[in-house]
Amino acid sequence: MAHLCFQVLSTSFFTPKPQIPVLLSPGAACIKSIHQYRYLYLKAMQDDKFSTPPCDESKVRVPHVLTVAGSDSGGGAGIQADIKACAARGVYCSTVITAVTAQNTVGVQGVNIVPEDFVAEQLRSVLSDMPPNVVKTGMLPSTGIVKTLCQSLKEFPVQALVVDPVMVSTSGHTLAGPSILDSFREELLPMADIVTPNLKEASALLGGVPLETIADMRSAAKAIHDIGPRNVLVKGGDLPASLDAVDVFYDGNDFYEFRSSRIMTPNTHGTGCTLASTVAAELAKGSQMLSAVKVAKRYVEAVLSYSKNIAIGGGCQGPMDHLLKLKSNVERRPFDPCDLFLYAVTDSRMNKKWGRSIVDAVKAAIEGGASIIQLREKEVDTGDFLEAAKACLKICRVHGVPLLINDRIDVALASDADGVHIGQSDMPAHVARALLGPDKIIGVSCKTPEHAQQAWVDGADYIGSGGVYPTNTKENNKTIGLDGLKTVCVSSKLPVVAIGGIGMSNAQAVMRLGVPNLKGVAVVSALFDRECVTTETRKLLEVLKESTKIAN
Ligand SMILES: Nc1ncnc2c1ncn2[C@@H]1O[C@H](COP(=O)(O)OP(=O)(O)OP(=O)(O)O)[C@@H](O)[C@H]1O
Ligand SMILES: Cc1ncc(CO)c(N)n1
Ligand SMILES: [Mg+2]
């Protein structure tokens, strides 16, 4: 009996278009071949038969890749690489698992194939309920699984199909035997928008022709294109180590070479899965094929380069670390309110007056015992500020002292400083938080309980409150006094550092206010408008330590 199929159809070559659901009439039996559905799609386009689905403006479309692949217990290739690559590229990834492998950096110890009907069930679950933009395939270990997949794709067509014809692991273990070659050639490849064989796989698809040079890769790309996929990318990761990593792309008309210098690293496990998933992710976002491949190649190169020295496992082929963007957050130790104890704020006028560079000033303050540094450089050009921030950061990291940038979120981002300190008239703290991400330190200057309340709501980590005493460092700055400071501290959920005219003579009075969230003092002139910054910092540290002893 013919049945209703609610389908998502696409053009015969990938075009970045929203998915167009089509309700086929009961008379239209489920489409038999991919060619037939592509024909029907084009015809329907001509006849203007598509109805746009009612759109709910409150819903956000999420680009979505479904990967149909094997699990790699080592986490570097297969399903695990696909999920990580899609996540890194900002794309949702659902999974149909075709095999479970026991694998590590030494090799493949075992393969357990998922029964064909259970692969079919997983496919149905995903495709019928949450149609992906793009399907990407990896390890398809049996002819039955290839056929099941092709059948599902005919029933539930998608915008693009990316086929990574996984056959042999880099360690030489067979992941899908030669028996699948016929079903690849006859059924899967003709449906593919792109197929991405490595040298061995390209050779196998062509009956074993030897492939050793870039000229060979071109001929292979053309011959594989004749099998039916719309685009072919022959990957050159396995070219001799002396050559660049060159991939050859052929779209049926033109050849393109994607070249990157070869990264000398043992951590290349999963490069192929990562490349294909990234192509799929970029297509899902709406890229054209050529730009998707370009971005994917660049991404793999960046991840390889980032991961070249990581050590996971004792074998000779390690995995990559896909989430490089998140890495800097891991290296930084979390903010500790006690860091606010002796908070040194640099000042360009004072540095000029005493003939010091920003870096020298920071070095001296750290040597004297400053527990956090803020670069407050109002008169320095952006380029010079950035260079100084990077140099200061190196010193701060060595000593475990956080480095904050005053006002300049751009400089904080570009230098990868630990955070920023912003005033009431700078960028709102919640916007700074959105730009800087969850891990960077954000401090906000607050004079009132309302400011303090807002800083908490906006996601700040601490507040700076003052001026406690009159100061020349900041013009037109209202003095709030010890009482004002206490009022702010009492109403603040965040730790507080006191600022404004604080030095050796009055630091104890401030610290003796006796409010638990007052964690320290921020000083400018008391350290930097002096001949020896290190000596002054040491002295102030002693005074502060003394005040805590008295308080306890
Ligand atoms: N050492 C390297 N330096 C730079 N790029 C590389 C290196 N090794 C592989 N690549 C690139 O990584 C991508 C994947 O190619 P490769 O030939 O390694 O695929 P593969 O053999 O299928 O990988 P897998 O190990 O996942 O099966 C290609 O773009 C290739 O050029
Ligand atoms: C599960 C799986 N898929 C693909 C590859 C190819 O890298 C692998 N090693 N393991
Ligand atoms: Mg591969």
CATH class of the largest domain: Alpha Beta
Q: Provide mean pLDDT, rounded.
A: 88
Identify the strand order in the major beta sheet.
12-13-14-15-16-17-18-19
Main sheet characteristics: 8 strands, parallel, barrel
* Distinct compounds present: adenosine-5'-triphosphate, 4-amino-5-hydroxymethyl-2-methylpyrimidine, magnesium ion
Find the count of extended strands (DSSP E, 2+ residues).
19
The tally of structural domains comes to: 3
Give the distance, in angstroms, between the N- and C-terminal Cα atoms. 85 Å
> In percent, how helical is the residue content?
40-55%
What is the CATH H-level superfamily of the largest domain? Ribokinase
Query: Can you tell me the residue ranges where pLDDT is under 50 for at least 5 consecutive residues?
Result: 1-53
The CATH topology of the largest domain is given as: UDP-N-acetylmuramoyl-L-alanine:D-glutamate ligase
In DSSP terms, counting alpha (H) and pi (I) runs of 4 or more, how many helices? 20
Roughly what fraction of the amino acids lie in strands?
15-25%
Shape: elongated
The structure class reads alpha/beta
CATH architecture of the largest domain: 3-Layer(aba) Sandwich
- What Rg, in angstroms, do the CA atoms define? 31 Å
Subcellular location: Plastid, Chloroplast
Domain Pyridoxamine kinase/Phosphomethylpyrimidine kinase: 72-315
Pfam families: Phos_pyr_kin, TMP-TENI
Cofactor: Mg(2+)
